[in-house]
Design brief:
Blueprint: H1 3-33, H2 37-59
Helix pairs in contact: 1-2
């Protein structure tokens, strides 16, 4: 595959990702306006994973996304 074709494909993938993320964020922001705390948590998670997802697409690598760590204090009252 020629380098300009590969670059064009990567640009299209990043553009698609941007559009999907924008749609998800708008949905969650609407829910947040209704004081949906779960939506706020999802927005924060998306924000943490976004750089990894974009780097994966741009680099074309199969890097694994970091796993969400559980809160060690969760369940303690």
């Amino acid at each position: 595959m020629k380098s300009h074709e590969l670059l064009s494909r990567r640009i299209n993938e990043v553009t698609d990702l941007r559009d999907k993320l924008k749609e998800m964020l708008l949905f969650h922001l609407e829910a947040l306006e209704k004081e949906d705390l779960a939506a706020k948590d999802r927005i924060e998670l998306i924000g943490r994973l976004l750089p990894f997802a974009v780097n994966k697409i741009v680099a074309g690598k199969e890097d694994k996304l970091p796993k969400r760590q559980s809160d060690p204090l969760e369940g303690i009252s």
